């Protein structure tokens, strides 16, 4: 009997003990819907404003500047171990060696792009010098490049675990090489 | 024939557990939420496989927008005030307490020193509008970023430098920043990126 009371909000009980003086013990029922609404609204707000994922960082180490005061020369490296990457917008031009190099172009695609080039080159260096980690990558950024390209190329180094790489300023000669290469592409196509 | 007429029944669901849960979650999020200070410029971070989380403290961020404008920010209020003090000493600008207060809550600033005082006296809306066109100069003749970094490192020697650049930011701007860092013998810094899955080999 008492359990029935207040089954629904305020719907008067029909029949039964109508008019009897004894008031039934009413357990007031609070309609919680608005509270729930509010609760979920706040919940949504906090879920959306909270920043769960903290951004990550990629550490970069750049070589110190060599000024005329310092009595050190830039390190000399064997030609055969080097690969130079000229990074443009979404494209990587690369050449091997130093004397009259031939320029090739590739991109950042995961299977066929620069990663493959570097791994192939590494295998080559390993065959010649006996150690795979002898390879040295020189990274030069073209002016047309965007920050994304910069992060991508450093990322490639991390992916193939290339420890020996250096970020070097590009020379006019190399800019010219890229320009010539682009021109030759336009002519042939 | 007994026809089953669905009885109109008002079902009262006991919402108490749901409310309990909702409020538990609210409490959790309220306590864990760390409001991001509004950033002056929008930056789309590039992705990389780097998975080291950015330390929460002692960080100096150099932000670069997609159009190559440079902003500077440090994480703590204390450092910001110390930097402002150094700007005052170096350039002789006087700042009122109100301006100091405003500066101490700005996550990032991108105005040249000459405009700093007038920038701080603007309203929030006007500041926002101004953020759309200013940048810290980094030319070799007037490299104010260098001064900012210098002040920050004096104010907090433990500070680490992070570059937070938009993925479309032109590289020459980044090169100028790296050059500026090298000039101050900072050879180790961080690039902020979002996580991308490590490729399968």
Characterise the protein shown here.
The complex is a heterodimer of chains A (189) and B (201). With 189 residues, chain A is α/β, with parallel strands linked by helices. Chain A has a domain at 79-188: Nucleotidyltransferase, domain 5 (2-Layer Sandwich). Chain A is 33% helix and 16% strand. The model of chain B has no long low-confidence stretch (mean pLDDT 84). In chain B, α7 (171-183) links the parallel β5 and β6. By secondary structure, chain B is α/β, with parallel strands linked by helices. A five-stranded mixed sheet of chain B has the order 1-6-5-3-4. At the A-B interface, α1, β1 and α3 of A face α1, β1, β2, β5 and α7 of B.
Key terms:
heterodimer, A: alpha/beta, Nucleotidyltransferase, domain 5, 5-stranded mixed beta sheet, 4 helices, B: 201 residues, alpha/beta, 41% helix, elongated
Unreliable runs of chain A, pLDDT <50, ≥5 residues? 1-17
N-to-C order of helices and strands of chain B: HEEEEHHHHHEHE
Named CATH architecture of the domain at 79-188 in chain A = 2-Layer Sandwich
Instruction: Please identify the structural class of chain A as seen in this structure.
Output: alpha/beta
| Number of separate domains of chain B | 1
Largest chain interface and its two residue counts?
Answer: A-B, 49 and 58 residues
Seen as an oligomer or otherwise, the chain set is heterodimer
Determine the mean pLDDT of chain B.
Answer: 84
Structural class of chain B: alpha/beta
- Major sheet size, sense and barrel closure of chain A: 5 strands, mixed
CATH topology of the domain at 79-188 in chain A: Nucleotidyltransferase, domain 5
**What general outline of chain A do the C-alpha atoms trace?**
elongated
Unreliable segments of 5+ consecutive residues of chain B: none
Number of strands of chain A: 6
**How would you state the average pLDDT of chain A, rounded?**
77
Helix content of chain B: 40-55%
Largest sheet of chain B: 5 strands, mixed
Proportion of beta-strand residues of chain B: 5-15%
Q: How do the SSEs of chain A run, as a string of H and E?
A: HEEEEHEHEH
Radius of gyration of chain B using CA atoms only: 24 Å
